[in-house]
Amino acid sequence: MTTVTPGFGRTVAHTAPQGSDQRPRRQLVDTKAPAEKAFLGLTRGSALVVLAVIALVGIFLTIKAVPALKVAKFSFLTTQAWQPDIHRFGIAGIMTGTILIALVAVVIAVPVALGLALYITEVAPARIKRTLVSLVDLMAAVPSVVYGLWALLFLQGRVVGVSRWIATWFGWIPLFHVNGADPSNPVQSGTLYSASTFIVGIAVSLMVIPILCSVMRETFSQAPLGEREGAYALGATRWGMIRSVVLPFGKGGIIGGTMLGLGRALGETIVVILIISPVYNANLHILQSGGNSVSGLIANLYSESSAFGTSALMAAGLALFALTLTINFAASAVVARSRSGAESDA
Amino acid sequence: MSLLDQAITAPDEPVSGAPAPQVRRKVRGVRRDMVLNLAGAALAGLSGSWLLGLVAGLAGIVGFLVVAYLLFVVAYAVLVSLTEDRPAVKDAVMTVLMASMAVLAFTALGLVIFFTLAKGWHALIHLNNYTQDLSSTGELAPLTQGGIGHAIVGTLWMIGIAVVFTVPVGLVAAVYLDMTRSRPATTFRTIVEAMSALPSILAGLFVYAAWILTLGFEHSGLAAALALSVMMLPYMIRASDLALRLVPGSLREASAALGAPSWRGEVQVVIPTARSGLATAVILGIARGIGEASPVLLTAGYTKTINADPLHGPMASLPLIALKLVQSGNANYTARAFAAASFLLLLVIVLFVIARKIGGWGPGHLSERGLRRVREASARDAERFARSQAARDVAAFAPAPSGWDATSPPDPSSTKDTR
Predict the structure, then answer these.
(1) Interface predicted TM-score of the whole assembly (ipTM), two decimals
(2) Do B105 and A139 count as a contact with CB atoms less than 8 A apart?
């Protein structure tokens, strides 16, 4: 912006020699006034402060993680256990749990958010649109502890029946298998199915839906009007128009939003520590009781860990940091590319 | 599927015979057959599910609703296909699917809010809930004793300090993003966007590692505030950046054309115009920070007594106390946990409503009072212009003959800018 703004400080240097016909190009020299320089310095300074804080997060986690990583070396990525005091620890099991929770959440959230975003942009009457957008934003603002309490005391009891049904009929798929499930025993207790990855995933999906929805909504509403009307003019129904115009244009938003939601779901802490019963090896059976996530591990163990155990937790935190940052960067790149050219600055 | 197919499958018009009197088709709004189809399909779904439930046991209320919903969609498709062609049936079914996703999401939100408030109600109505702490309240003490006062005090301290840290830095950093379109700024924006989705527990872990373990400070409200700041900062920058970007570029150009250097344009034109958006950004940042339990969990410690000193000693906060109390498993403590969660939820909703109210105003929106101020300023300007004009007239025409009346200045009210 500074390059196009003629300020007070801009001086024009006339270098045309007298008597010559060929007048050379005027040189524009942008000398900024001291106030301008000071203001720019201030804004740049606070941006640097923010960058420094962000860098410090990574640096401190790394410094603190080094002692543990030195001992564990490569086995940190492959070990399925968490006993740092006997030097037997690794994130293979816990990271699997983290990713499973996030995947369950995203698999549930994507269709709901997609339908919700399409409903708000394409179907809903104009007068309730604003209210619906506000409600989605409110959904994002509800504290995670509130979702956690709800999931623990309301959702869990109702989902156990569904889990049992899925395990009974689809238990042959390894993902839905539940060890010790006995479909012929109608009075089997539900504890086998409670505190599971599935239940946490449902609760986390509620927190992810608004994130996905707002990213999708933004790109959907940017689908060009001309092509929408063109589709209608060719006789398309509303769904025909959505399929041939809105969805192709919103593809970047759908993918990017999904990845952003995945990044958010990977880091959810409160619901995990409230519901799941922690295990440290990889539990691939999402309906079965027991699971874990990196954030849950940190929150559960930070206070009772030795110095070395804390270092191991920092290493786990660092792994989560790297994973979410990668996913978020990729997501914002996808969203930014889908957005480019869709809006102008002036 | 292509659009051409749909165009071809459009119903044929009768070619022969006199044109029948055309009735205008109703293309928007609610039609009677739509309502009847929906109602019939809903009835079919519910009764079918009930029947199936009698024959083969389903998994409780959830199973009943799922089966009812599936039957409803099938029945609706069949009903619509009685009168419409294939694309129209597809359209109707997809519309119902989209609407039901919206209903599902908002039902879940409603259930969360209703359940929390209903459970928290018992403890929420007692005044002692807000004024007392839990220091001398046992697990079996009735809800008329003790309360979450210490958590309210803690939350106020933490969020207050975090706001002091984040608002100035965040707003100025957003201004930086707005002032330059340079490459570093774009990179900075990408980094901030990626950081705003950082797991909040990592903010807590960072402060725990740096402030408590390395620098040796104790668990305190200040440490929690630092963790909340790390978490809120990227979020606030992003929201303020969006608000600033909504300011029309023509305003900046106008200020530049009037000769203002870019910093003056920013301070006197862009920021005042984006004021409502910036306020919304700050409020939503607060609403986000106030509900975070995980950064506080690692940094504040936990206490049952009121601690009004954010520099020393452990502190509680509303989300933290809700978490800790429900983890204890005791029925009375669970009720108190729900009281804390309800209070938190109400706080967030209030903040949210305020933010919506302010944010509903577009950039440059002025309140009644602001409008009056602007009008007064323009009236003053008009008067000043008139006065200097009159002075110039007098100077120019002083020696002139008295044929032209230069003594009475033009009426200021006639030039008053009513904007």
Answers:
(1) 0.84
(2) yes
